[in-house]
Specification:
The protein is an all-alpha fold and 90 residues long. It has helices spanning 5-13, 20-30, 34-38, 47-58, 61-82. The chain folds into two domains: 5-38, no CATH class; 47-82.
Length: 90
Amino acid sequence: MGVSVESVSRYECGKLALSLEMIALVSDRLGVPIEMLVGEGPVGLSPDETELLEGWRRLDVRGQRAVLEVIRWGGEALDDRVGIRRDVVQ
């Protein structure tokens, strides 16, 4: 891409801003939409996933454990509906 290691380091540390031209080039080289590089929230997550992650980070340890229990319960309930047995190696 014609960028020095020093420049990349400065971009990563926020000491140097990427030009729109460079953002477009990076987007093209990585094969991802520009929005994915400059959009809000974590890259590659849907708005719902971003909301879940942000909510998770606001929870204390007890709240996080409770959420994990619900997720695990939901996964097991879904497995039961489609006939997947977790006690059998597949």
